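Q: C-alpha coordinates for this one, please.
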Amino acid sequence: MVTTVSKKKKVVRTNEQCKLSKANSEAMWDDLAAERMFYLNTIKCLAKKYHTYVVSPEWMSGQMYLGGKLQKKHRNVCVFNAVVSDKIWELRENEYIGCDTLAQVTKEVSESGEWKMLSTEEKEELLEHMQDVKDLKAAKKVTGKEAAVDIENTMSAVQSELLGLEKHTGCNLMWILTCRKVRDIFPPCSHASKPLQTAFLHLRNTTVESIGMQVDAYMASGAAGVIKVTRGCKSVDLKAEIREMIHVGMREFQCERGILEDNVPAMAYTTYEGFVVKWGVELVGWTEGQVTNPGIITSSITLACHHAALKNHDCDWHVLSADEWEVKKDAHQQ
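A: Here is the predicted structure, written as C-alpha coordinates:
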Protein backbone atom coordinates (compact mmCIF):
# COMPACT_ATOMS: atom_id res chain seq x y z
CA MET A 1 0.00 0.00 0.00
CA VAL A 2 1.47 3.31 -1.06
CA THR A 3 0.64 6.39 0.94
CA THR A 4 1.00 9.83 -0.50
CA VAL A 5 1.65 12.92 1.52
CA SER A 6 -0.23 15.93 0.34
CA LYS A 7 1.84 19.06 -0.07
CA LYS A 8 0.88 22.07 1.95
CA LYS A 9 -0.45 24.87 -0.18
CA LYS A 10 1.32 28.17 0.06
CA VAL A 11 -0.73 30.72 1.92
CA VAL A 12 -1.81 33.52 -0.39
CA ARG A 13 -1.80 36.93 1.23
CA THR A 14 -4.63 39.36 0.63
CA ASN A 15 -4.15 42.76 -0.95
CA GLU A 16 -4.59 44.40 2.45
CA GLN A 17 -1.86 42.19 3.96
CA CYS A 18 0.52 42.97 1.08
CA LYS A 19 -0.08 46.70 1.45
CA LEU A 20 0.47 46.51 5.21
CA SER A 21 3.71 44.54 4.74
CA LYS A 22 4.98 47.05 2.18
CA ALA A 23 4.12 49.96 4.46
CA ASN A 24 5.94 48.33 7.39
CA SER A 25 8.98 47.67 5.24
CA GLU A 26 9.13 51.26 4.01
CA ALA A 27 8.74 52.55 7.57
CA MET A 28 11.58 50.32 8.75
CA TRP A 29 13.98 51.59 6.06
CA ASP A 30 12.99 55.19 6.80
CA ASP A 31 13.78 54.63 10.49
CA LEU A 32 17.12 53.01 9.61
CA ALA A 33 18.06 55.92 7.35
CA ALA A 34 17.20 58.38 10.12
CA GLU A 35 19.26 56.43 12.67
CA ARG A 36 22.22 56.28 10.27
CA MET A 37 22.08 60.05 9.82
CA PHE A 38 21.82 60.54 13.59
CA TYR A 39 24.81 58.21 14.11
CA LEU A 40 26.96 60.09 11.57
CA ASN A 41 25.99 63.47 13.00
CA THR A 42 26.88 62.25 16.50
CA ILE A 43 30.35 61.23 15.29
CA LYS A 44 30.89 64.59 13.61
CA CYS A 45 29.72 66.53 16.67
CA LEU A 46 31.93 64.58 19.07
CA ALA A 47 34.92 64.81 16.76
CA LYS A 48 34.49 68.54 16.35
CA LYS A 49 33.96 69.03 20.07
CA TYR A 50 37.20 67.28 20.98
CA HIS A 51 39.23 68.65 18.06
CA THR A 52 39.76 65.35 16.25
CA TYR A 53 37.55 65.89 13.21
CA VAL A 54 40.19 67.67 11.15
CA VAL A 55 42.95 65.18 12.06
CA SER A 56 41.17 61.83 11.77
CA PRO A 57 37.40 61.60 11.21
CA GLU A 58 37.59 57.79 11.21
CA TRP A 59 39.04 57.64 14.74
CA MET A 60 35.82 58.71 16.43
CA SER A 61 33.86 56.24 14.32
CA GLY A 62 36.15 53.45 15.53
CA GLN A 63 35.56 54.48 19.14
CA MET A 64 31.80 54.50 18.62
CA TYR A 65 32.01 50.99 17.18
CA LEU A 66 33.72 49.78 20.40
CA GLY A 67 36.55 48.01 18.59
CA GLY A 68 35.27 44.46 18.74
CA LYS A 69 33.23 44.71 21.95
CA LEU A 70 30.18 43.88 19.81
CA GLN A 71 31.90 40.84 18.31
CA LYS A 72 30.12 37.73 19.53
CA LYS A 73 32.34 35.50 21.62
CA HIS A 74 31.69 31.76 21.33
CA ARG A 75 32.53 31.07 24.94
CA ASN A 76 30.13 29.17 27.20
CA VAL A 77 29.21 30.87 30.47
CA CYS A 78 28.74 28.35 33.31
CA VAL A 79 27.59 28.65 36.92
CA PHE A 80 30.95 27.39 38.22
CA ASN A 81 32.78 30.35 36.66
CA ALA A 82 30.10 32.69 37.98
CA VAL A 83 30.62 31.43 41.55
CA VAL A 84 34.40 31.82 41.22
CA SER A 85 33.96 35.33 39.79
CA ASP A 86 31.66 36.31 42.64
CA LYS A 87 34.13 35.14 45.31
CA ILE A 88 37.03 36.90 43.56
CA TRP A 89 34.97 40.09 43.49
CA GLU A 90 34.28 39.88 47.23
CA LEU A 91 37.99 39.35 47.98
CA ARG A 92 38.96 42.27 45.76
CA GLU A 93 36.59 44.58 47.61
CA ASN A 94 38.31 43.56 50.87
CA GLU A 95 41.76 43.82 49.23
CA TYR A 96 42.58 40.15 49.85
CA ILE A 97 43.99 39.54 46.38
CA GLY A 98 47.27 37.84 45.56
CA CYS A 99 48.93 36.25 42.52
CA ASP A 100 47.60 32.78 43.46
CA THR A 101 44.12 33.87 44.59
CA LEU A 102 42.35 32.67 41.44
CA ALA A 103 43.90 29.20 41.67
CA GLN A 104 43.01 28.89 45.36
CA VAL A 105 39.42 30.05 44.93
CA THR A 106 38.91 27.76 41.91
CA LYS A 107 40.19 24.77 43.92
CA GLU A 108 37.98 25.61 46.94
CA VAL A 109 34.82 25.98 44.84
CA SER A 110 35.58 22.77 42.94
CA GLU A 111 36.13 20.75 46.13
CA SER A 112 33.11 22.17 47.98
CA GLY A 113 30.65 21.56 45.14
CA GLU A 114 28.47 24.41 46.43
CA TRP A 115 27.76 25.66 42.92
CA LYS A 116 25.83 22.45 42.18
CA MET A 117 23.30 23.08 44.96
CA LEU A 118 22.25 26.61 43.96
CA SER A 119 18.66 27.40 43.07
CA THR A 120 17.68 28.67 39.63
CA GLU A 121 17.23 32.20 40.96
CA GLU A 122 20.67 32.18 42.60
CA LYS A 123 22.29 30.90 39.40
CA GLU A 124 20.68 33.63 37.31
CA GLU A 125 21.72 36.28 39.81
CA LEU A 126 25.35 35.10 39.80
CA LEU A 127 25.48 34.96 36.00
CA GLU A 128 24.06 38.47 35.76
CA HIS A 129 26.58 39.74 38.33
CA MET A 130 29.46 38.19 36.37
CA GLN A 131 28.28 39.96 33.22
CA ASP A 132 28.10 43.26 35.11
CA VAL A 133 31.69 42.77 36.29
CA LYS A 134 32.82 42.15 32.70
CA ASP A 135 31.09 45.33 31.55
CA LEU A 136 32.87 47.31 34.28
CA LYS A 137 36.22 45.92 33.17
CA ALA A 138 35.61 46.83 29.53
CA ALA A 139 38.04 49.47 28.31
CA LYS A 140 36.51 52.72 27.11
CA LYS A 141 39.33 53.49 24.72
CA VAL A 142 39.86 51.28 21.67
CA THR A 143 43.47 50.27 21.09
CA GLY A 144 45.23 48.87 18.05
CA LYS A 145 45.40 45.45 19.72
CA GLU A 146 41.61 45.34 20.11
CA ALA A 147 41.17 46.30 16.47
CA ALA A 148 43.50 43.48 15.41
CA VAL A 149 41.60 40.95 17.54
CA ASP A 150 38.32 42.18 16.10
CA ILE A 151 39.63 41.75 12.55
CA GLU A 152 40.94 38.25 13.28
CA ASN A 153 37.68 37.11 14.91
CA THR A 154 35.51 38.61 12.20
CA MET A 155 37.50 37.26 9.26
CA SER A 156 37.76 33.76 10.78
CA ALA A 157 33.96 33.73 11.08
CA VAL A 158 33.40 35.16 7.60
CA GLN A 159 35.96 32.93 5.87
CA SER A 160 34.09 29.70 6.63
CA GLU A 161 30.90 31.22 5.22
CA LEU A 162 32.69 32.33 2.05
CA LEU A 163 34.27 28.90 1.53
CA GLY A 164 30.83 27.33 1.92
CA LEU A 165 29.46 29.80 -0.63
CA GLU A 166 32.21 28.76 -3.04
CA LYS A 167 31.35 25.08 -2.63
CA HIS A 168 27.59 25.14 -3.00
CA THR A 169 27.29 27.85 -5.67
CA GLY A 170 30.46 27.30 -7.71
CA CYS A 171 31.32 31.00 -7.62
CA ASN A 172 34.83 32.45 -7.51
CA LEU A 173 35.56 35.09 -4.91
CA MET A 174 38.47 37.18 -3.69
CA TRP A 175 39.09 39.54 -0.79
CA ILE A 176 42.03 41.64 0.40
CA LEU A 177 42.40 43.27 3.82
CA THR A 178 45.05 45.95 4.38
CA CYS A 179 45.99 48.55 6.97
CA ARG A 180 44.93 52.19 6.81
CA LYS A 181 48.02 53.81 8.32
CA VAL A 182 51.55 52.79 9.23
CA ARG A 183 50.76 52.48 12.95
CA ASP A 184 48.22 49.69 12.41
CA ILE A 185 49.49 46.48 14.02
CA PHE A 186 47.56 43.89 11.99
CA PRO A 187 49.17 42.26 8.94
CA PRO A 188 47.62 42.22 5.46
CA CYS A 189 45.71 39.11 4.49
CA SER A 190 43.88 37.89 1.41
CA HIS A 191 42.04 34.98 -0.16
CA ALA A 192 41.18 34.03 -3.72
CA SER A 193 39.60 31.00 -5.33
CA LYS A 194 42.01 28.77 -7.24
CA PRO A 195 40.70 29.82 -10.70
CA LEU A 196 41.24 33.45 -9.73
CA GLN A 197 44.75 32.70 -8.49
CA THR A 198 45.55 31.11 -11.85
CA ALA A 199 43.98 34.03 -13.72
CA PHE A 200 46.09 36.57 -11.83
CA LEU A 201 49.25 34.57 -12.51
CA HIS A 202 48.64 34.45 -16.25
CA LEU A 203 47.10 37.89 -16.74
CA ARG A 204 49.18 39.95 -14.30
CA ASN A 205 52.13 37.65 -13.65
CA THR A 206 51.55 37.97 -9.92
CA THR A 207 49.48 36.53 -7.07
CA VAL A 208 46.57 37.97 -5.12
CA GLU A 209 48.69 37.71 -1.98
CA SER A 210 51.42 39.78 -3.60
CA ILE A 211 48.92 42.43 -4.68
CA GLY A 212 47.58 42.58 -1.13
CA MET A 213 51.07 43.11 0.27
CA GLN A 214 51.82 45.84 -2.27
CA VAL A 215 48.53 47.65 -1.59
CA ASP A 216 49.18 47.39 2.17
CA ALA A 217 52.67 48.84 1.67
CA TYR A 218 51.23 51.70 -0.40
CA MET A 219 48.61 52.48 2.26
CA ALA A 220 51.30 52.57 4.96
CA SER A 221 54.27 54.15 3.17
CA GLY A 222 53.20 55.33 -0.26
CA ALA A 223 55.07 54.47 -3.45
CA ALA A 224 58.38 53.99 -1.59
CA GLY A 225 56.83 51.16 0.43
CA VAL A 226 55.57 49.45 -2.74
CA ILE A 227 59.04 49.60 -4.30
CA LYS A 228 60.55 48.04 -1.19
CA VAL A 229 58.03 45.19 -1.15
CA THR A 230 58.26 44.58 -4.90
CA ARG A 231 62.04 44.29 -4.81
CA GLY A 232 61.68 41.39 -2.41
CA CYS A 233 59.63 39.28 -4.84
CA LYS A 234 62.28 38.41 -7.43
CA SER A 235 62.56 34.93 -8.93
CA VAL A 236 65.68 34.24 -6.86
CA ASP A 237 63.73 34.85 -3.66
CA LEU A 238 60.84 32.66 -4.84
CA LYS A 239 63.22 29.79 -5.61
CA ALA A 240 64.84 30.05 -2.19
CA GLU A 241 61.47 30.14 -0.42
CA ILE A 242 60.21 27.12 -2.41
CA ARG A 243 63.27 25.09 -1.42
CA GLU A 244 62.88 26.16 2.21
CA MET A 245 59.17 25.23 2.34
CA ILE A 246 59.88 21.82 0.79
CA HIS A 247 62.69 21.18 3.30
CA VAL A 248 60.68 22.36 6.32
CA GLY A 249 57.64 20.36 5.19
CA MET A 250 59.77 17.22 4.83
CA ARG A 251 61.32 17.71 8.27
CA GLU A 252 57.97 18.22 10.02
CA PHE A 253 56.39 15.32 8.13
CA GLN A 254 59.16 12.86 8.93
CA CYS A 255 59.32 13.93 12.60
CA GLU A 256 55.60 13.19 12.89
CA ARG A 257 56.38 9.66 11.64
CA GLY A 258 58.87 9.20 14.48
CA ILE A 259 62.09 9.84 12.54
CA LEU A 260 64.68 11.83 14.48
CA GLU A 261 65.34 15.30 13.10
CA ASP A 262 69.04 14.51 12.57
CA ASN A 263 68.04 11.54 10.40
CA VAL A 264 65.62 13.44 8.15
CA PRO A 265 66.94 13.12 4.57
CA ALA A 266 67.73 16.08 2.35
CA MET A 267 65.53 16.55 -0.69
CA ALA A 268 67.04 14.89 -3.78
CA TYR A 269 65.74 16.73 -6.84
CA THR A 270 67.93 15.02 -9.46
CA THR A 271 67.05 11.52 -8.18
CA TYR A 272 63.55 12.29 -7.00
CA GLU A 273 62.04 8.95 -8.09
CA GLY A 274 64.72 7.05 -6.20
CA PHE A 275 64.10 9.29 -3.18
CA VAL A 276 60.38 8.40 -3.27
CA VAL A 277 61.14 4.66 -3.53
CA LYS A 278 63.67 4.76 -0.68
CA TRP A 279 61.62 6.70 1.84
CA GLY A 280 58.03 5.86 0.85
CA VAL A 281 56.90 9.48 0.59
CA GLU A 282 56.11 11.79 -2.30
CA LEU A 283 55.36 15.46 -2.87
CA VAL A 284 51.72 15.66 -3.95
CA GLY A 285 50.25 18.75 -5.63
CA TRP A 286 53.27 19.94 -7.67
CA THR A 287 51.52 22.28 -10.06
CA GLU A 288 53.35 21.61 -13.35
CA GLY A 289 55.21 18.55 -14.66
CA GLN A 290 57.58 16.40 -12.62
CA VAL A 291 59.03 17.57 -9.32
CA THR A 292 62.25 19.37 -10.18
CA ASN A 293 64.81 21.70 -8.63
CA PRO A 294 63.30 25.21 -8.40
CA GLY A 295 66.70 26.59 -9.40
CA ILE A 296 66.29 25.41 -13.00
CA ILE A 297 62.73 26.77 -13.44
CA THR A 298 62.84 29.89 -15.61
CA SER A 299 59.15 30.83 -15.75
CA SER A 300 58.14 33.31 -13.05
CA ILE A 301 54.51 32.20 -13.41
CA THR A 302 55.46 28.57 -12.71
CA LEU A 303 57.51 29.63 -9.69
CA ALA A 304 54.61 31.69 -8.36
CA CYS A 305 52.23 28.73 -8.82
CA HIS A 306 54.56 26.38 -6.93
CA HIS A 307 55.09 28.97 -4.19
CA ALA A 308 51.34 29.55 -3.72
CA ALA A 309 50.59 25.80 -3.69
CA LEU A 310 53.23 25.10 -1.03
CA LYS A 311 52.19 28.05 1.12
CA ASN A 312 48.50 27.09 1.04
CA HIS A 313 49.39 23.40 1.62
CA ASP A 314 47.80 22.41 -1.69
CA CYS A 315 51.22 20.88 -2.38
CA ASP A 316 52.45 18.80 0.56
CA TRP A 317 54.19 15.58 1.56
CA HIS A 318 52.20 12.35 1.49
CA VAL A 319 53.12 8.88 2.81
CA LEU A 320 52.64 6.06 0.30
CA SER A 321 50.42 3.10 1.14
CA ALA A 322 51.95 -0.37 0.86
CA ASP A 323 50.40 -0.93 -2.59
CA GLU A 324 51.44 2.51 -3.86
CA TRP A 325 54.98 1.90 -2.61
CA GLU A 326 55.21 -1.42 -4.45
CA VAL A 327 53.98 0.20 -7.66
CA LYS A 328 56.62 2.92 -7.34
CA LYS A 329 59.34 0.31 -6.70
CA ASP A 330 58.35 -1.75 -9.76
CA ALA A 331 58.23 1.34 -11.97
CA HIS A 332 61.63 2.51 -10.72
CA GLN A 333 63.28 -0.88 -11.34
CA GLN A 334 62.04 -0.94 -14.91
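A few notes: The mean pLDDT is 76. Residues 232 and 238 are 9 Å apart (CA to CA).
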